[in-house]
What we know:
CATH superfamily of the domain at 28-165 and 250-313: Alpha/Beta hydrolase fold, catalytic domain
Keywords: Hydrolase
Protein name: Alpha/beta hydrolase
Radius of gyration: 19 Å
CATH class of the domain at 28-165 and 250-313: Alpha Beta
Domain AB hydrolase-1: 54-300
GO cellular component, one term: membrane
Pfam family, one: Abhydrolase_6
Shape: globular
Amino acid sequence: MNFPPIIGILLLLPTWLFARQPSIPEGWSDGYAYANGIRIHYYRASPQPDKPVLVMVHGVTDNGLCWATLALKLQDMYDIYMLDARGHGLSDPFTAGDDGETLIKDIVAFVGAMEFHNPILMGHSIGAATVMRLGADYPDLARAIIMLDPLLRRMGGQNRSARNNSKPNTDVSSKSATAKSKIEVNMFGNPEILVTQNNYSFEDLIALGRRQNPLWGEMDIAYWALSKKQYHGPYTSEAAQVMTGTMNIGNALSRIQVPAIILKADAPTEVRKINEDAAVAMQKGKLVHIDGGGHNLHHDKLERTTEVIKEFLSTL
C-alpha cells in the first residue's frame, strides 16, 4: 500500500472540512424571537424539552455557535439555547435608542418571549458581565449564573478597558481599510474597517484563527471565523457605548442571590488574589481559575472548563 498519499490526504482533511462556511451540528436548529424591539437569532442544541433550560450569551465579535463545543458536552443534560447578541451573528443591529442597559434587557425579553422559567444563564466576557448584571438586577429571572472570564477589577466604576474603548474611532475618513495589508479582527473601529472584516475570505480567517489559537479545536476555529464574517457593529461611538456600558458591573456580584460561579483565565498569583477578593462578594458563589486557559478558556481548556461547570451544575 502507498502510505504517503494517504497521509497527505489526512493532513489536509481539516482544511477540506472547513474550506466552506460550516453548518450547525447535526440535530441542532435555529430560529428568531422578537424581543426588546429587535429580532434575536438563536441556535438550539439537540432538543431536551424535559430538561432545564440553559441560555448562553457570547462575547464581543462572536456568535452563538462559538459555544458549540461546550454545548455539545452539555446537551444531553440541558435544553440549550445560544443567542446571537444584538449586532452579532444573524441578530438585528444596534439602534439609535440603545444604551448600557439594552443588552441586559435583550436577554430579559428573550427569556420572556420564549416563555422560559428560571433558566440557567451562562455568559463569556461581555456576555459574562451581562448575565452577572441580570443575576443582580433581575433576581427572580435565573436559576443560576455561570460567568466565564468576566472583568472583575474596578468594580466600583467604569473599568479601564471600557474607558479606553468608550469613544472608539468611528470616523470613516480617519483610516482607510484598504491600506491594511494583513488580516486583523477588531471589536471597534470606523465602519469601513469593520465591514472589511466581513469581506475577509473564510480561508484567511481560518488560517488566522489557527495561528492565534493553537489550543483550539477545528470546530471552535471554524465558528470563530464565521462569527467574524457576521459581526456588524458597532458603527458609531454611541453604539460602542452600548457594549462598554454593559461592562459597568458596579456591585453586581454582591447582589446575585442565586448560586453563581466565575471561571477565570490562568493568571499570576497577584492577579488571582485580586480575582478571589472580588469573588468574596458573592452570596452563593465561588471562583475557579482554569490553569493554562486564556480569555477564551472554554476553547483553550474545554475539558477542564466542562468539568468545573458540570460539577457546579450538579449542586443545583
